[in-house]
Amino acid sequence: MKRVYVNEAWCLGCHLCEYNCAFANSGLSDMVLALKGRPIYPRIHVEGDEKITYAVSCRHCEDPVCVRSCIAGALTKEDGVIRIDKNKCVGCFTCILVCPYGALSPGETGVMQKCELCLENACGEPACVRGCPNRAIVYEEREEAV
Amino acid sequence: MKRYVIAGNGVAAAGCIEGIRSVDPAGEITVISEEKHAVYCRPLISYYLEGKTDPGRMAYRSADFYDRNNVRVLYGRKAVRLRPEARKIELDDGTCVPYTDLCLAAGSSPFVPPFAGLDTVKNRFSFMTLDDALSLEKAIGRTSRVLIAGAGLIGLKCAEGLAGRVAGITVFDLADRVLSSILDKECAAMMQKHLEQHGIRFYLCDSAERFTENTAYMKSGANIPFDVLVLAVGVRANTALFREAGGETDRGIPVDTSMRTALPAIYAAGDCAQGMDISTGQKRVLAILPNAYMQGHTAGVNMAGGSEVFDKAIPMNSIGFFGLHAMTAGSYEGDVYEEKTENSLKRLFTKDGLLKGFILIGCNERAGIYTSMIREKTPLASVDFDLMKKAASTAAFPAAVRRKMFGGVV
Hints:
The structure holds 2 protein chains of 2 kinds. Chain A is α+β, with helices and mostly antiparallel strands. Chain A folds into 2 domains: about 1-55 and about 120-145, Alpha-Beta Plaits (2-Layer Sandwich); about 60-115, 2-Layer Sandwich (Alpha-Beta Plaits), CATH 3.30.70. Helix content of chain A is about 20%, strand content about 20%. Chain A contains 5 helices and 8 strands. Chain A has a two-stranded antiparallel ribbon with strand order 1-8. A two-stranded antiparallel sheet of chain A has the order 2-3. The longest helix of chain A has 9 residues, at about 15-25. The model of chain A has no long low-confidence stretch (mean pLDDT about 95). Chain B is an alpha/beta fold. Chain B has 3 domains: about 5-110 and about 235-305, FAD/NAD(P)-binding domain; about 120-230, FAD/NAD(P)-binding domain, CATH 3.50.50; about 325-405, Enolase-like, domain 1 (2-Layer Sandwich). In chain B, helix 6 (about 185-195) links the parallel strand 11 and strand 12 (about 200-205). In chain B, helix 1 (about 10-20) packs parallel to helix 8 (about 290-305). At the A-B interface, strand 1, helix 3 and helix 4 of A face helix 8, strand 22, strand 23, helix 9 and helix 11 of B.
């Protein structure tokens, strides 16, 4: 299945993916209204040091330890995509405790949020990929199981 | 055709069902459920009291879970006798269920200490099940003074759940600190202070000498008046079925990494099972939900003739109170790296070139990277630990490892 992949050699560390992610998931149609002067809660984050940078989001693992550990039954995997039912999540942070990638974080309301490949919002394709100015983030099918 | 029987209907049982069905779509599955509820999220009962969820949302799986997996559930039934030689399990209504493979996922029961006069306390509750929470809820009101015996995970989550709904909450524990199973003294003091700021009162290093209906007479000499008593001093694994069938038990039912017990065709999973804690190398009961699911799944796969090993069990907890989160994992031995601020505390424990455990209070970003290092026994020498100890980050892994983690990008 198609997943989001990063290429750390091409990542400029501009953090645009974080803004595009937050905007795509804001439910608003105006980027200024959605983001200006507000703390943002992206589901992708740029990691690295002064030498290398790269964006990290959910890997939609083959054997997802977050799904197996969720105490609320809020995380599920269907058709290869790990989703969170925010209505069921109680914000216990167990998924943060177990995710080996650090790919989950609390959203504005305290319940967890994670990359759902923009399948649940109006974007239709991963906003981080579409907005990456250097094509450092791609959305494609690969042989490799992650 | 295989006939699978699962004694218990909690998260370990759900894992077992999903494990079986990942291998065998056809075999007959029977679940013996003492509780008259479909599988639900037991750790959420305190969140229910707090108003953060409700019984509908507490369902662990969707409403069609048993139908979809073609599972027969015997609600309100209890297994009372196990006959391994005949491969049968007897229920409390006299029926006898034959099996080819059995999973004991019977959980644990609250331990009730022999406090003198406990029988005179009418408003007395345990805090394990949804029914416990619903009964407790009926007994409390705005003016209730609640006394909780036990300052562990269950007792304190109960305190948090009740905090906005009653007049006062007092917790006592024989231990010298709160959350003594997961926090060391200094970390516990930090959490206790936070709990006290939210109105919870503590009597530590203390216990009840005797009870009358509305008063606890403490060993320290204090008298604590109360309207409602919650007993949360600890739990005991439900091992009787297995033991009475001739199996040897310890704190739980000993299992190997495939979840097989010493008796033929019998597996165990969840809070009743005693498996290997790889952070200490000791066999122990790790009564936490993730292990219950993973053990159940492994048991299920192996019962159905597949092959799965669960050899990554470690103690780990993520538990928050009034907005302050504590995350803990592994064992607290070896050298300590510490960072401390007024509102946060981080302790990483390293030994033999490995990260063995951690305590994180108020600083939990990407903590799973640390947890993963413990579970995978990642050598410290293979990462930039100076970077990693300051902030959990995949940037501390060598580029080649990172490339593999993130899907083989150049």
